[in-house]
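Structure tokens please, single chain.
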Amino acid sequence: MDPMIFWNLITSVLIALVMFMLKNSHDEQQRIQILLNKTREEIARDCITRAEVRADLERIMERFDAGFERLEAKIDALVKKGQ
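Here you go.
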């Protein structure tokens, strides 16, 4: 067997092995990227933003304030009634 053919065969097999490993590595990186993007979408969908928290807290505080105002009005009416 000619040494040049033997050398070409060895280098071809090594290059094919390296290319196969690179392809697998690239495919795995793409799979991880897709999973990361899905995770980001799920987090964005499931989590609440600071603006939403502030808006909810403002609505709650407005309801408490309105309830306290009505309670104060009732207490004032009872105090006037009792005098």
